[in-house]
Amino acid sequence: MDLPLHVWLAYGLVFVVWVLFRFSCTKSSVKSTHPAFALVVSSYLIFFPQISSSAQPSLAWQTYSAQKVAVSLGKGSPVLLEFTADWCSNCRVLEKTTYDDPGVIEAANKAGINPFRVDITDFDDEQQTIINKYGGKALPFAVLINHKGEVLKTYLRMFSANSLKENIERLSIRSVGVIDWSPVEGTAMIGRHAPEWFNLNWLDDNPLSLSALRDKVVLVRFWLTGCPFCTRTAPSLREFWQSYKDRGLVVIGIHHPKSEMTKNPKVVKEAARALGFDFPIAMDNSWQTIRAYGVGSELKRFTSVSFLIDQQGIIRFVHDGGEFHLGGGDEHTACQAAYFALKRKIEELLEKSA
Question: Contact 346/249 with Cβ under 8 angstroms?
Fold first, then answer.
């Protein structure tokens, strides 16, 4: 019976409770309570695995075939191969820990990975050829392959969820290099010193200045309430902030109003809360700062624009407006490419200061 590790632990816990119960009761009390206890234990063992397994997300594993892998790569989808066997206990551990890790599942889904299992329980010449092709020596063994069919990472024996997640994210960045993204406007601003922020009202009463953030990588997003581009970009901003703040990234949201109502701090605070912004938020009611960053002069198509500033205060990346994010279908291919281009630049700048 192939059950998750936490379910086996639950079985063990129930057994221990039963033993303690059995030896702490008198013979007569055991007889009187045994049917009720048996009913509780039976119900737990029947329903707990079903509840746990139904609530537990997992990778959408497919049975390996060379044709399926070729089709996946032909569509530009990267591939994860797991080599496993019924007799491999460490494979079971990886399947119920590393592969079922929520961070791994989320990264794999974002990257569009197709995961395949190569079952070598009944070993044959074809499976030996596959293992030899990827350099496998023993189980557990796994291979991460990019959209071009190139091996990005080979895992020999046990490995952590963090290691797999990080390599999936790197694979994503390289895979979407299928499209080379660059801004339509604002390219001349790259390499210039970023202007200081002027006349801003900070919602948390903790004013920041660009000069005080030297030695940090700073991502500035100019946004406004009711903006659909800002709404679709919000998850990416939250992701970057949560993923990289401990490595030295600061995300700043600067609100620029387009009506009198949206100059109200309560309105802006509620809009920021609705978008899930838990990074510093400022209000540029006079538009003094946003115009200093070229909106209306060098950037004319959108006002919701983003700038990535390095540790020396130099602009290193300009997203000239609209949205950047994952998903959304073919009509959002440029948005996806912009997302990965920005993420790649963030990692590049953070690695320089590491």
Answer: yes
pTM of this structure: 0.57
Matching fold, domains 62-178 and 187-353: yes
Residues 6+ apart with CB under 8 A from 83: 117, 118, 120, 131, 136, 139, 140, 141, 142
**Domain 62-178, CATH homologous superfamily name and number:** Glutaredoxin (3.40.30.10)
Residue numbers in the chain where pLDDT is lower than 50 = 1-4, 7, 27, 29-33, 37-55, 176-178
Q: In this structure, what is the dihedral angle of CA atoms 16, 22, 25, 29, given to the nearest 10 degrees?
A: 130
Q: Which two tokens stand for residue 195?
A: 């202007």
CB contact burial 122-161 (16+ within 10 A = b; e otherwise): eeeeebeebbeeeebeebbbbbbbbbeeeebbebeeeeeb
Residue 318's nearest CA partner among 182, 141, 124, 135 is 182
Gap between the Cα atoms of 223 and 237, Å rounded:
11
What pLDDT is recorded for position 257?
97
Coil, helix or strand at residue 286: coil
* Domain 187-353 grouped into CATH 3.40.30.10: yes
Contact call for residues 198 and 208 (beta carbons, < 8 A): no
Cβ atoms of 278 and 238 closer than 8 Å: yes
Beta-strand pair 62-63/249-255: unpaired
Task: Judge contact between 181 and 325, C-beta under 8 A.
Answer: no
What is the three-class DSSP state of 123?
Answer: coil
Two structure tokens written together for 147 = 């959209």
Residues 303-315 pLDDT 10s: 999 999 999 999 9
Q: Which pLDDT score is estimated for 23?
A: 62
- Supply the pLDDT for residue 41: 47
The reported pLDDT for the residue numbered 312 is: 96
CB atoms within 10 A of CB 298: 15
Contact present, 14 and 41 (Cβ < 8 Å): yes
